[in-house]
Amino acid sequence: MPDLSVILVSFNDRKHLEKCLQSLKGFPLEVDLEIVTVDNNSSDGSPDLIKNKFPEVKLLCASENLGFAKACNLGILASSGEFVLFLNSDTIAEVQALSVLLDEMKRNPSIGAVGPALLSEQGTYQVSFGKRVDFFSEFIQKGFFNLYYAKKLKSDKKVREVGWLSAACLLVRRKALEEAGCFDENYFLYFEDIDLCYKIRQEGWTLRFCPQVQISHIGGTSTSAVKNSSRYHYRKSQIYFYRKHNSRLSQSMLRVYLWMNFNFGRKKFLRMLYKQDQ
To answer: How many CA atoms lie within 13 A of 172 on its CB side?
Structure first.
């Protein structure tokens, strides 16, 4: 059994995928590492890149775009490490930083998952952790806490317990992952990581955010070319998440917010979203 299984889901992101896989080659020899890449039917030559330049990587090729959650679950089944690292293809995973996360997990058997601070190419902090997600907390976080932590994390490197972590770079104990039932495949894209973190905590595990560990994350590279589709899946996942985890009040407030922020020409878009309720 390897110590660490790294699972990457890739979709038409050959440029960044190569850099990400290259960065993993520097892992210390004392860590038994396996890398699993699930390709969601890319058309940019990503599978050939892996076969030719990274033959040590276990490659799973889907015949269609399965979405993030289902692809991750395939990667979980194909891996066997005691710890599982979910990593976006547009990250640069400095091995020293990942080693710190791994050490944190090994020192604290009550931790189910840990995550680092995510930085953009410009060096700004991205939203990669939070507490509870409902209508009011989302409103406060987007209006205040995102800006607050963007400044605070520059100096505050205190490890803290949180309610959820981003799966752009998320290290999970396999036992906690299995107890939580892995990812909910009803999510195609977005909110699946928050949902997983909720389930891990429900099983009695803790989540730790480690801001002293910094990972470069570009973000949106697989969805930038299909913005309308990405936007649709974001709202669809958001509505499903609210139905699953939030009160009727939060669900109603979200619906009101969505209707108020879409003009008449976009109402058809919202009707498609709400069909899942029927």
So the answer is: 33
Q: If we measure between CA atoms, which residue out of 72, 50, 52 comes closest to residue 6?
A: 72
What type of residue sits at position 131?
A: K
Per-residue confidence (pLDDT) for residue 219, from 0 to 100: 76
Which two three-digit tokens encode residue 88? Answer: 């976006």
Considering its fold, how many domains does the chain have in total? 2
> 129 to each of 111, 117, 251, how far by Cα in Å?
15, 8, 22
Ramachandran angles phi, psi of 79, nearest 5°: -115, 170
The CA distances from residue 222 to 17, 63, 96, 235, in Å, are 11, 17, 26, 17
User: Distance between CA atoms of 61 and 71, rounded to whole angstroms?
Assistant: 10
Cβ(202)–Cβ(163) below 8 Å: no
Domain of residue 270, residue span? 225-277
Q: d(Cα 133, Cα 145) in Å, to the nearest integer?
A: 13
Q: What is the C-alpha to C-alpha distance for residues 90 and 84, in angstroms, rounded to an integer?
A: 18
For the segment 128-181, what is each residue's pLDDT rounded down to a tens digit? 999 989 888 887 877 777 777 777 787 888 999 999 999 999 999 999 999 999
CATH number of the domain that residue 104 is part of: 3.90.550.10
End-to-end CA distance of the chain: give it in Å, rounded: 45
Residues 243 and 148 in one domain: no
